[in-house]
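Researcher: Structure for this, please.
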Amino acid sequence: MIGAMNFADRLADAVRAKNSCAILGVDPQLDSAKAKGVPERYTLGRFCCEIVEACAPYVCAIKPQLAFYEARGIDGMRAFVEVIRTARKLGLIVIADAKRGDIGSTSAAYAEAFLGDGDFGCDAITVNPYQGADSTMPFIAKVASGRGVFVLVRTSNPSSGEFQDIADGDGVAMWERIAARVHGWGSDYIGESGLSAIGAVVGATYPNHARRARVLMRNAIILVPGYGAQGASAADALASARTDGGGVIVNASRSLMYAYRGAAEKSAGEAAAIAARAMRDDLNAALAKLRASG
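Model: Predicted structure, token format:
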């Protein structure tokens, strides 16, 4: 059972303890014509948990993407539970990358599923705000119980600007309006760290937008996808960091989970550990430059 300590403070403590703002996306890809999503001689659960255990010294949290477990049916969801339990034993924070959001009663059920004390209960969840405040409030209601919420603000996918960059009559982009709302929601949940338990997802592939996002959400923890396989550099990933280098966590998934494909004679776990350590060091070097220039 998760304690009621402010989520942002727990995450800030984890970042300090690990000297790392890196997070591991535990995203077991589906089979393709080129490669299997799970290596030979592994079960899904064993593969995912080996990666989590190997990367644990170098990451402050994990972020399993629900779609890759749901697509595998009952066995996939059992593996998801295994991943949560393994992370708990290792003292890692778990962020469910679920991107949920619906009418109030449905969002309340999603919130209970992923932010409650049941089998799928995690420390935080990603949510989609595009159905309005009533779809988001059930998740925010869980913040008082020590949970966290990361609201989709500016995503890293190539076509994200198709809707997110649409400007209103005042010339303000949709994603900026959402960022302002996240700041408002989060102002009631700021912890001793100066950060809010209501954060945002802002992709690393749009660093100029990331810098603007920090201006709009000065207290938010910003979860940054796009580093690694999606091509963003450490400097890009840290564009939304605060002046002290804090307030940001950076995700990598495929570049860690599938590092073994480019590492001869290394097991999946060994290759992932090497990649996770390199990611942590890369981000820390970029953070040192950021602090020195600030």
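Researcher: Any notable elements?
Model: The longest strand covers residues 93-100. The domain at 7-288 is CATH 3.20.20.70 (TIM Barrel).
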